[in-house]
UniProtKB/TrEMBL annotation:
Domain Gfo/Idh/MocA-like oxidoreductase N-terminal: from-to ranges: 2-123
Name this polypeptide is given: Gfo/Idh/MocA family oxidoreductase
Domain Gfo/Idh/MocA-like oxidoreductase C-terminal: 135-425
Family under the similarity heading: Belongs to the Gfo/Idh/MocA family.
A GO MF label: nucleotide binding
Residue runs in coiled coils: none
SUPFAM superfamilies in UniProt: Glyceraldehyde-3-phosphate dehydrogenase-like, C-terminal domain, NAD(P)-binding Rossmann-fold domains
Length: 435
């Protein structure tokens, strides 16, 4: 395998996966590509690998004997690497989102068909034990026919803010959080319901980040307001920040600590949508990027009752104004004091599904809470990627069909906001390509 795009995700997920002793005999890393030679070097040393490094993708394809290309570049560039890899006769594992725009999506789907090779999209949230339990419960049929869904996703002032610091903050790079982030959420719903989205009506606004009339600099490193700013970026927050980004800046000018209140932020931070599905389900969905905790709540209403699910991935100690302390405590909620959080729900070590049968009563299904790596999804997914022939009982593995439907909901939401009308997914691409 080779990796295209050696940023944080490449190092922390795929680097670990390929250097893990469990990968021995199953997969081997044989090359790294990134346009930034400085980041390439840092990434190779962080992964503790000595493999050829390339700043020319075509050269890497030509010179290495790889069967699979892992794509972990900036979202807007996924299509170019996926298509070039397929045309060179390789399989592809791509990070979400599959891509950012309908035209790029159509080209990927056509290239995959012509190549006879396969694209896998890494939907790690599917693998989280809690998400898998929801899938199992819905498949049991106890909810009867699902009629509607209420789904809210919360990004907090640590993780949510991070999307407004760098490339993600522009629609042209990330497709906006409707695509970059909500691709996870829309994929979960499609997978849970086993239905396809048909039509979307959406609203979006920028109410917290971006130009909000407050004095600010361009980036935290040079800003005069860092002492009083709750969002001053902490270069000490992770040992990789300094080496992977600040030391590599000279080669491409990529700032990791751009100001979250900068004028060139053009993505939304407040989003709601109404979605209709192929089996008749209606969904109300909301995504906010400045919440006091991180996680989601979802309820499925059905002819057999109601299933309520709630996950708190991290509680932000919002009594504390400084970003550095907020971030540190958020990452270790068990060691922080309850007062730091001033939060009625102490983070428990269990996650619970609640089923309310339609004629009364409640059943609770509890399972251990997983604090790390996307609800515990990352490690399970990595092991599955290494053993693609293993039995996949709940259909965790995803290809371009799932990748496409999950981004098309978000792209339809963007169009709906622009045109102030409901947008059908069939207006965006030829859906026959997804059959
Ligand atoms: N599944 C998940 O939960 C999850 C989590 C984090 C990131 N991701 C995905 O991983 C990908 C990388 O995210 P990241 O956080 O590592 O970002 P990053 O900014 O740390 O890394 C992006 C890399 O892409 C490189 N790059 C920039 N322009 C390029 C171009 N034109 N061609 C090739 N490479 C280019 C950069 O030099 C950098 O090394 C994104 O697609 C993101 O959506 C997924």
């Amino acid at each position: 395998m080779v990796i295209a795009g050696t940023g944080y995700r490449a190092v922390t997920l795929f680097g670990r996966m390929l250097t893990d002793p469990r990968a021995r005999g199953l997969a081997q890393l044989v090359g790294l590509y990134d346009p930034n030679p400085l980041r390439l070097q840092v990434a190779a040393s962080a992964m503790k690998v000595q493999v050829p490094q390339y700043t020319d993708f075509a050269e890497m394809l030509q010179k290495t004997r790889c069967g699979t290309v892992i794509v972990t570049t900036v979202d807007r560039t996924h299509d170019a690497y996926i298509i070039a890899a397929l045309e060179a006769g390789k399989d592809v594992i791509t990070e979400k989102p599959l891509t950012t725009d309908p035209e790029k999506l159509s080209r990927i789907l056509q290239a995959e068909r012509l190549s006879g090779h396969q694209v896998t999209v890494t939907f790690n949230y599917r693998y989280a034990p809690y998400a898998t339990a929801v899938r199992e419960f819905l498949a049991s049929g106890r909810l009867g026919t699902v009629t509607s869904v209420n789904f809210e996703w919360y990004l907090d002032t640590v993780h949510g803010a991070d999307y407004f610091r760098r490339w993600h903050r522009q629609v042209q790079n990330s497709g906006s959080l409707w695509v970059h982030k909500a691709t996870h959420h829309f994929d979960l719903v499609n997978w849970w319901l086993q239905q396809d989205p048909v039509e979307v009506y959406a609203r979006g606004a920028r109410r917290f980040y971006g130009e909000q009339g407050r004095p600010h600099g361009e980036r935290c490193s040079t800003c005069a307001f860092t002492k009083s700013c709750e969002f001053a970026f902490d270069w000490q927050g992770d040992p990789l920040f300094e080496s992977l980004y600040r030391q590599a800046e000279a080669a491409d000018g990529y700032w990791r600590d751009g100001c979250v209140f900068a004028g060139d932020v053009d993505i939304w931070d407040t989003m709601t949508a109404s979605v209709r599905y192929s089996g008749g389900v209606f969904m109300n969905y909301a995504l906010h990027a400045y919440m006091p905790f991180e996680g989601y709540r979802i309820a499925f209403n059905g002819t057999g009752g109601r299933l309520e699910c709630s996950v708190i991935e991290a509680v932000t100690p919002h009594t504390i104004p400084e970003f550095t302390r907020r971030q540190a405590l958020r990452c270790s909620p068990d060691t922080a004091s309850a007062q730091d959080f001033r939060f009625p729900l102490r983070v428990s070590d269990q996650e619970t599904l609640y089923f309310f049968p339609v004629f009364g009563g409640v059943e609770a299904v509890a399972m251990p809470r997983t604090l790390v790596d996307h609800g515990g999804g990352d490690e399970r997914m990595a092991l599955d990627l290494l053993a693609p022939d293993a039995i996949d009982r709940w259909g965790h593995r995803a290809g371009t069909r799932a990748g496409a439907y999950s981004i098309l909901t978000g792209i339809a939401a963007r169009e709906s906001i622009a045109q102030n009308r409901a947008v059908a997914l069939g207006e965006l691409v030829d859906l026959a390509l997804l059959q």
